[in-house]
Amino acid sequence: MSDFNQQTIDEFRANEGKVGGPFDGAPLVLVHHVGRKSGREFVAPMMYLADETDPRTMYVFASKGGAPTNPEWYANLVGAEKATVEVGTETYDVSVREVTGADRDRIYTEQAKRFPGFAEYEKKTAGIRTIPVLALTRS
C-alpha cells in the first residue's frame, strides 16, 4: 500500500471519516477487499457517490487517476462480488455489482459534475478504456 493511501486511511479513522488534502469535503469510503491472487486483505480509500433513491447503495469509480489500466481493487471486487466498507464511523458488508451502459454513463457524468477531476480522468482514458463504475449495496 502506498504511503499516501495509508496516511489517508489513518486520517479517515482518526477523524470519523473526514480527511483533508485532495479529499477535503469529498465523500470517502474505505473499501476492504481480498486479493484474488494473494488472498491478502487490502483497504483502499475511494471517493463515492451516494445513490439518490436507494440509501443502501453507493457508487465507486475505478479511475486510477486516469491511468490506462484499471486499479487492482477493481478485479478483486468484481471477482468477489462482496466487500466490507467503512463509512464515517460505521463498518458493514456490501454486495458489489458493475454498472454498465446508460446507467453507468449517467452515474459517471454526475460524479464528474460534482468533482471535475473525474472528467479529466475520462479524457485521459478516452479510446483506451471506459472507467468502470461499481455499485456497493449494503447487505
Molecular shape:
globular
Order of helices and strands: HEEEHEEHHE
- Terminal CA distance: 27 Å
> Which value, in Å, is the CA radius of gyration?
14 Å
The average pLDDT is: 96
Biggest β-sheet, characterized? Answer: 6 strands, antiparallel, barrel
Helix segment count? 4
Oligomer: single chain
Which spans of ≥5 residues are poorly predicted at pLDDT below 50? Answer: none
Q: Beta-sheet strand percentage?
A: 25-35%
Order of strands, widest sheet: 1-2-3-6-5-4
Count every beta strand, where a strand is a DSSP E run of 2 or more residues: 6
Structure classification: alpha+beta
Bin the helical content: 25-40%
3D structure, described in words:
The protein has 139 residues and is α+β, with helices and mostly antiparallel strands. It has four helices and six strands. The protein has helices spanning 3-14, 72-80, 101-114, 117-125, and strands at residues 28-34, 41-50, 57-61, 82-87, 90-99, 133-138. A six-stranded antiparallel barrel has the order 1-2-3-6-5-4. A hairpin with a 6-residue loop joins strand 1 and strand 2 (41-50). Helix 3 (101-114) crosses helix 4 (117-125). The protein is globular, with a radius of gyration of 14 Å. The two termini are 27 Å apart. The mean pLDDT is 96.
